[in-house]
Amino acid sequence: MKNTHLLLLFFTLMLGNLHCLAQSENVLWYNRPAEYFEEAFLLGNGKTGATVFGGIQSDRIFLNDVTLWSGGPVDPEANPDISYLIPQVREALAREDYRTAEQINRKIQGKFSESYSPLGTLYIEHNQQGTATGYYRELDIGKSLATVRYDSDGVTYTREYFVSHPDRILIIRLSASKQEALNFTVKFRSLLRYTTSSEDKMLHAQGYSPYYAYPSYMGKVPDPIRFDELKGTRFSADIQVKNKGGQVTLSDSTITVSDANEVVLYLSVATSFNGFDKDPVRDGLESRALAAYQLKRAYNQDYCTLKERHQKDYQGFFDRVKMELNGSTAPDLPTDERLKRYAQGSIDNSLEVLYFQYGRYLLISSSRTEGVPANLQGIWNPYIRPPWSCNYTMNINAEENYWLAECANLSEMHQPFLTFIKNLAVTGKHTAKAYYGVDKGWAAGHNSDIWAMSNPAGDHGKIAPRSCSWNMGGTWAVTHLWEHYLFTGDETFLKEEAYSLMKGAAEFCLAWLVMDKQGYLITSPSTSPEAQYITPDGFIGATLYGGTSDLAMIRECFEQTMKASRVLEVDAGFRDSLKTALNRLHPYQIGKKGQLQEWYYDWEDEEPQHRHQSHLFGLYPGHQISTEKTPELADAARKTLEIRGDQTTGWSKGWRINLWARLKDGNQTYKMFRELLSYVEPDGAKRFAYNGGGGTYPNLLDAHPPFQIDGNFGGAAGVVEMLLQSGDEGIYLLPAIPDAWSSGSVSGICARGGFDISMNWKDGKLTRVDVLSKTGKDCCIHYVGQTATFKTIQGKIYSFDAGLAER
Asked: What are the backbone angles phi and psi of residue 151, rounded to the nearest 5°?
């Protein structure tokens, strides 16, 4: 028997070593447990999030539920009509009194958004003898499975973790190479109000979120987190174990396992959230019954069945896209060491593919709940006062989270954001009227939350206009509806879901526009998100009129709404109104430095290297500026990016990657992509002064810093943008391919018009392209001056060689 155990241990170690010898484009692995959040593994099913540290004596798993937030539904009565201030701001601007305009504009604010709450932490305390050796921890994003393995006192211990979408359950399997070697205690703790109890061989926890959570960026304030047992979203967490051998003992707060051979731990969580407009206490779901039902259903299944169902579901999305980049000779190292080596300038094409696919993994794992999109940290947050409230920041970050969805073949993951827009339009009607005096359409500010808050945030004047006095959140958001239609060709969606929302946003903009002294239509007041100007007399402010970013977003909204009305053959009169207004919008201006002007006047920026570049919206994600259609404006956008510089935060670098790709500058795009993967130490372990812009933490999460997931999504979207771009003019193949990616292949990425594209290229030249038509629409593809235009049949694949001659 002893020799059998030694042989088993030898083969286990060999399999582990073989797994590590070959670089994988789907595996993150490390040779020690995570100490900090930015080293841990993220698992999720689009609703339940688990952050796994993989400790030896003590393992901890942070738990989240995408629907667990502070506060409750928006109360329209709490937002009084202050739209009478709008004419006052406009009058001050008309007489060029920017200081007064700034002061009045600051008063046009409502409450802060609510905060995303942490559900709790699961602890697994092990009773093991000896010192651990041979530690190995991996996250296989091809399987959505985390594994921990190590040896201690002659025993090999293994743990596997996954969060299943089909079964709504977190599963942890613990096993050992020796009989009766598993001894541990399970505990649950939470930063929220909660209690624990045991019944029916199950540990049960229940609690509730705060009704008030003051943003952490406001610093220390008295009583920032407030609870009331009659308010707040309820949560339940049920934990049960299934053991082979040994004994299981429960107390009111623990589950203890003794002398077991194998244990499967089942954890089910649920909340009372029942919609953005329903009180989670009075009209909420029965979280306890829901958690218990999910647990009972999963507990009746064995581990292998649950794992198989989970991976079949997950891989149905993940496996749609494959990518290879040839030429990497990098040694196989733990992922954090690979990242450090890469940040020093070494080549590691497999790491670049891993980063791209990791973005897709994170989107699948965090965005599968209708009406509840991925937030600033996806679904993973351990803080009761999280950075920026872990909310939906509508002036770039919420939208950047979804740039990846359509082009990287994850259209289903777009749905949480698309359905959230419907909620936002409901509260946005009151916002349009009460704050801006517009009784048509709807509007949203720069912050929102699960309750679809749409008012301009700022706590009634506590935040300067540069951050809060912006009302184009809805205008930007509805462009995603049209994008979804372009990629899918789903006319039913356009007719029944999208068009009314697009029209509502356009109606607001149409009523919001006023005429300037030259007879052009502009917005007034206007800001450029989070940026400030300097007037010739030295005043620094944000409130002006005719901001370039406002008008760029309105152009995109109007053009898309007009196209949608033509497709649906409705609202011809409204379409004509939009066309008339579109032709009268104040045009783009090129400044004295050759840059695209951000402001109505060619004024200096308070911060020339500012992280936001909202006035470049027309280049990306919009489609108004391009190297082919508007070369002068494209050159001005290039100059703007040169002035902004390359050092910036993580999410901003993700945006700039896509902007440079749209300018067809592959090598500069790649430079920015490499810089996005600059190594950043965990926030709690800064052993040196970090003075750079954004980068990447050891577990490949984006460093704003701190962690924001939008950089991961923006950077991954940029990879597709280098390989494929599409629009009204057709599909452009390898438009921004860098020299470093001279040979490779990709399959399954998507183009507007309803096409899946697969390509091979060698020595920087396309060798083959396959076009799968999903909608049967006509197709036009471009490659280095060559064009192929052809009709398609839905479901058929069309193949071409390097000269775009059909094969």
From this structure: -110, 145
Phi then psi dihedrals of residue 130, to 5 deg = 90, 170
Cβ neighbours of residue 354 closer than 8 Å, sequence gap 6 or more: 24, 25, 26, 27, 28, 141, 335, 700
The letter for the amino acid at 626 is S
Looking at residue 166, its pLDDT comes to 98
179 in the Ramachandran plot: left (φ > 0), alpha (ψ -120 to 50) or beta?
beta
Q: Do 412 and 318 touch, CB atoms closer than 8 A?
A: no
756 pLDDT band, cuts 50/70/90, is: very high
Of 134, 124, 147, 143, the C-alpha closest to 29 is: 147
Considering the domain 26-69+118-318, what is its CATH architecture? Distorted Sandwich (2.70)
> Which is more confidently placed, 804 or 437?
437
Tokens of residue 802, six digits: 């390097």
**What is the pLDDT confidence band of residue 688, given thresholds at 50, 70 and 90?**
very low
The C-alpha angle 746, 751, 757, rounded to 5 degrees, equals 30
Q: Strand 730-733 relative to strand 779-783: parallel, antiparallel, unpaired?
A: parallel
E strands along 192-347, which residues?
Answer: 193-199, 202-208, 212-213, 225-226, 234-244, 247-250, 254-260, 262-271, 322-325
The rounded percent of the chain whose pLDDT value lies above 70 is: 96
- Positive/negative CA dihedral, 332, 337, 341, 342: positive
Residue 621 has pLDDT above 50, yes or no: yes
Domain 83-113+409-623 belongs to what architecture?
Alpha/alpha barrel (1.50)
Q: What is the pTM of this model?
A: 0.95
**Confidence (pLDDT) at 12:** 38
Q: What is the mean pLDDT of residues 227-249?
A: 97
- Domain positions in the chain are 26-69+118-318, 83-113+409-623, 320-366+646-807
Site of tokens 């396992």: 257
Q: CA distances (Å), 244 to each of 183, 518, 552, in order?
A: 12, 81, 63
